[in-house]
TrEMBL record:
Record's keyword terms, sorted: Transferase
Stretches assigned to the Glycosyl transferase family domain: 24-194, 217-390
This protein's name: Glycosyltransferase
GO MF annotations, alphabetized: glycosyltransferase activity
InterPro entries from the UniProt entry: Glyco_trans_1, Glyco_trans_4
Gene Ontology biological process terms from the UniProt entry: lipopolysaccharide biosynthetic process
Lineage: Bacteria, Pseudomonadati, Chlorobiota, Chlorobiia, Chlorobiales
Organism: Prosthecochloris vibrioformis
């Protein structure tokens, strides 16, 4: 089968699926927006494209997001036309992440090709991320109108998509009927063979002062991981729990992974970064001595990330009701004792006191109490971590569970 992948930052969620399809004898091509795009990647033929224009200055704010998606969709459409007309390329199946609009017009180029889309999230005015955090309310009465326009890209895909896939049942449930019934739920998959518990793991941490600290499983370590440190992933709540946690745990070290940009939600109105805003808020409540035990590690290499999880005494994961992070399942696979917010889609993977603990997203006192309780109870941490890994290996393992199901889904779409 001739398969075309569409993802602005390929491989993205398709990093395992695309090479696996090559290995099964399919011819695989990918369209992406990377400026420096290799000719091939793991057997996948790579084709880059770029946008010809930017967004219109002063455009109506309700349609700005949609215009951006149309611009990208047109760029992908123009590149697809060149592939068809100049190279005779014609895919049997197009697999796309439609979130940035690239796949909007590909059926106009290849009307006979089947289109399968990755359904990551559908925005709703109630019951999910919007309006969840009263500290960051909807800005005005027009917010619902803006949200409806933001979903127009997804709605336009419903008419042309032949199939869809979503990583969790809750994320799939955010999509409206009748399209929801056409979504197959299969997670992207976790490499549980790499993310294993390791009682002998060590890691040398270099502080800002240049001091090297050798960390082992004997150290009391709290890990907190975001792609970027921002409210959507509970960074502000965690930071507000930090002063009391440091006062109560005199030996704890806090290891914080994440960048200073914004992955989800809005940027701070006052400028700067969410990371620094909440550091500035809590820093006066923390002594200089205690602050030395807080380590902002930025974005770390993957092998170092794995070691951090293997070292973790308690792993804290907070999120609005939104897309589930890979890092949560990776922490479970590594056998972490996980304390997580009692929000969707976490209830899908964590059963309270069975394979982790759930806590009110906004309750900083309860977060501190639960972390301290877990730190003081190694047998409990061991039980929760063992059950967490069992769930990860039995339901989310890449090679034995998720990838075979993804391949079966793809090949079921063969003409």
């Amino acid at each position: 089968m001739e398969i075309l992948f569409i993802h602005q930052n390929f491989p993205g969620q398709f990093r395992h699926l695309a090479p696996a399809l090559v290995q099964r004898g399919h011819r695989v091509t990918a369209l992406c927006m990377k400026k420096e795009c290799p000719a091939t990647w793991n057997g996948v033929s790579m084709v880059s494209y770029g946008v010809a224009r930017g967004s219109t200055k002063g455009i109506h704010p309700w349609v700005g997001d949609f215009e951006t998606k149309v611009i990208r969709g047109e760029a992908c459409f123009r590149r697809a036309l060149r592939l068809r007309d100049q190279e005779g390329y014609s895919p049997d199946l197009i697999i796309a992440h439609p979130g940035w609009g690239e796949s909007l017009f590909l059926k106009e180029v290849w009307p006979k090709a089947k289109l399968a889309i990755y359904c990551e999230f559908f925005y709703t005015p109630e019951g999910a991320d919007v309006g969840f955090d009263p500290e960051f309310p909807q800005e005005d009465a027009g917010s619902r109108c803006r949200l409806r326009m933001k979903n127009s890209n997804s709605m336009l895909h419903f008419d042309i998509a032949d199939a869809a896939i979503s990583p969790t049942a809750w994320q799939a449930s955010t999509f409206p009927e009748p399209f929801r019934s056409r979504i197959t739920v299969v997670h992207d998959g976790i490499d549980t063979a790499t993310l294993t518990p390791d009682p002998d793991v060590t890691l040398t941490l270099r502080t800002k002062a240049g001091v090297k600290i050798r960390l082992t499983r004997e150290d009391e370590l709290i890990t907190f991981v975001n792609r970027n440190l921002e409210p959507y992933r509970g960074y502000h709540i965690f930071m507000r729990a930090l002063p009391e946690l440091l006062r109560r745990r005199s030996n704890v070290r806090v290891l914080i992974v994440g960048g200073s940009e914004v992955s989800y939600g809005a940027r701070p109105k006052q400028g700067g970064s969410w990371k620094q805003i909440f550091i500035d808020e809590v820093r006066p409540q923390i002594s200089d001595t205690d602050w030395q035990r807080v380590h902002f590690l930025g974005k770390v290499p993957y092998d170092e990330f794995v070691k951090l999880l293997q070292l973790s005494t308690v792993h804290l994961y907070l999120t609005y009701p939104f897309v589930l992070s890979w890092s949560l399942l990776e922490a479970m696979s590594a056998g972490c004792a996980v304390l997580a917010s009692d929000t969707e889609p976490l209830r899908e993977v964590i059963t309270h006191d069975k394979n982790g603990r759930l806590v009110d997203f906004f309750d900083t006192r309860a977060i501190v109490e639960q972390i301290c309780h877990l730190c003081d109870n190694p047998a409990l941490r061991e039980r929760l971590g063992r059950a967490a890994r069992e769930l990860a290996t039995n339901q989310y393992d890449l090679k034995t569970i998720c990838l075979p199901r993804q391949l079966e889904w793809v090949e079921s779409l063969q003409p």
